[in-house]
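Form 7-S
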Amino acid sequence: MKTKLYIFVLGFFMISSGLQAQLFNKIKGKIEDKAAEVVEEGLNAGKKNKNTKSRSGRIQLGEVMDFNPADSIIYATNFSRTKVGSMPQDWKTTGSGSVIPVSQIGGNWLKMSERTSYKLNKSLYYPEDFTVEFDLLVAADKVDDLSSLYFGFTKDNSLSRWISSNNIWYTELQYMNNNDVVVSSPSADIYQALNYDLETYANQVMHIAIEVHQDQVKIFLDGNKIADTKLFNREKAKHFFISSPLRQNHNSTTLISNFKISVYKDLLSKL
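Output:
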């Protein structure tokens, strides 16, 4: 009887030891897995914090509007004195044009005919330093209903063709491509193509500003500088022009207003 009891107790302890070993291994495995998870989370958190720090630490670039408008106006018009439906007397054209009111925006605007160039009737003397400013409006369902519009300077004040072959430099707004602009100077042998969002300018006013210091020209579209380079080549005679698009589909059109040419006060006595 004692022998059987001894065998039973011995077997019980052996079985108990085995169960304890299995339980210990399970607990040990869970602890190791949890430890691995904690380590992995720590590593991932480190990477996340590093990435966050990298994003938040990016250098912030400032924007500077360096257009310096001249302060003495030598010519200005908003077409308020022009009879509605008429072509302004101080402008000339290769085709036709008419002043119309634009009620949604206000004021009178010169509506430009398709494939037509415009210049001032009177030749102005431009000093070495001056500015030109005007507002441009595209009335259209979408801007790619139009082809390119041009503005710039020519060597003479004649108007014999749509785009003068005697131009000094010009800016081309390629509406048909929605976001392409070209600045070119045959005189200075410069051609610059860049991206600029034109698509948003359907039925919106774009303010155009040109600042000239001798041969150096800055061009701004709504305060954004698109050129700052030598576009003139020591030309003494220079004449502003603007040419409407060759194509203006679906009753789209282009208009200008608030045009002015100014010089700097300390140079006014030289005119």
